[in-house]
Amino acid sequence: TWFELSGLSDFYPYPAQSWQRYTVKQMNDNMTNPKFFSVVDGPFRLKSFHAGRYASMVPNLAYSGPDKPHISRLIFRFLNSNASVFFALKSGTVQLGNLPDPLYPARKQLTNDRLTISGPNWGFNYLGFNFSNPKIAFVNSLLVRQAMMHAINQDLMIKVLGFGHGARAYGLVPGNPPVYLSPEAKALLKHGAYDPALANKLLKEAGWHRGPDGIREKDGHKMAFTLYIPPSMIRGPTLLATMLAKVGILVRMREMPFNELYEKMIDPHSKNWQAVYLAWSQTAYPTGGSIFKCGGVQNGYHYCNKEMDAMMDRIRITSGLDALYKFQNYFTDQQPVIVLPNMKLFVMAAKNIHGVSHAITPGGNFYPQFLWVSHDQ
User: Where are the alpha helices (H) located in the chain, listed in sequence order?
Assistant: First the structure.
């Protein structure tokens, strides 16, 4: 099942007669050149691409699928802030787009649009650590990571960040739809894990005690870390920092452009960064790929747990869901990253655009061939 749903998607068939004269680098360098690609198998094809501005798509006349496009042109515009997205929707420059979570209360200003609530995305949000950084060696303690999980009030995060539209999450297997959730995961999601008294108990058990300023200390070291945040995402980390401070953990926040943040993370020799506030999308069969495997190509966290690796490997060679259940339960217990709740998606569309609920799947994927436009407003 894993191979069919996740493994096969890593293989892209390229007709030899069209591509054998090109190197992988040449194909990569020309990925935005519409004259370079002669083979397109989806309902749309690229017409033009202007970096940092927009990508223009038109129907692929050679598409043989049953779900042919209803619209003659689709333009994706690149906008770099919550405010620019909102005002593009308000002015009609953009007729369909995500309404940024912080601006959900202002949705009534978008009088020409309709709201569709979908999702959450098929993935997970998280607080991740650099396990190779000696300055935050305390994150190697399982008790500390479990304490962080119990210190976070996910229901409050959903109320504040998603205005009540969200879902608890404690593992890397998404809960919506719940087809891959173990019985233990379902029970945990139902009851929640917020328990600050237990968090304090676990931190004491790990040998960390509050200092005069309320921040926990051990052997002369404070329990504190610097958290890197992508732009326009300060609300979540601020709430998170407040919750962790209540159990004696100090969080310093630093906003950083995503490409710079990611560059620091993927450097296998980097021991300088400490923590990140990010999200991760999942493949159809949600195992997390190589993000948590010892030495995995996507493991920028330098996390290594041989027992977890063995459980992950068994998923790929074992039929049924039992191996996945055991892995996700162990992951939730270990918390290699502190998993955070998932927020639903707020999508605004002009009133003459239809099919939005069909075009956006429950997992947050976008299939614009199902959109159609009427002349009425």
Answer: 2, 16-19, 24-29, 82-91, 142-151, 154-161, 183-191, 196-205, 235-245, 258-266, 306-317, 322-334, 356-359
